[in-house]
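Our working data are protein records whose layout never changes between entries. The record below serves as our worked example for the rest of this section:
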Amino acid sequence: MFVRHSNTHYPEPEQELLEHAPQVRAAGAGIGLWPNTLRELDTLGVGDDVRSMGKTVEARFFDAAGHSIRTVGYDPAAHQFLMVPRPDLNNLLADTLGRDRVRPGTHVTGFTEHDTHVEVHIADGAPLRADLLIGADGVYSDVRAALAPGSAAVAHAGNYAWRAVVPSGDERPEGTFVTIGSARTRGGYTRVAQGQTCGGSASSTPVN
């Protein structure tokens, strides 16, 4: 959750990250970043740092028999993206913003919009006055619920995913990205960084 507000102690508007978790969590497996995201990271001045921590991956899909599936009519570069370890990316972004601008353990419950500012409601504190509020508080977003009533997350029963990052060992660098199996299963692996491989599998059951 980002807020931007004017502050007499700073010559420029101040940004803060209101983090619901008790700390910035360096957790997770790999995350894929496409060119549009990398362009924004370049604007922030950290694009090269992000690229240095990841691995360029060419998205490839295979059916259960091992036959390659590829959408025709696109340049090969359109299938490429950067895989990075999510913990490393989390830490880099927190350091770029400034750890002193991260307020952990802060639960935003909603907001009130005024003509000149936004009042951000905090579960265990006084409201925060801000010029701009960006609600990036996940699937169960309280900000989205306040902004668009009736948009609450819907339980997606019958879908399961397992992911992990492991040492690459002798695994061939090119790997595979996703293999489509039988009975609505999917699985694959790919290099996520130097010496690290991200693997995952998923299965789903039709919901009646």
The radius of gyration is 21 Å.
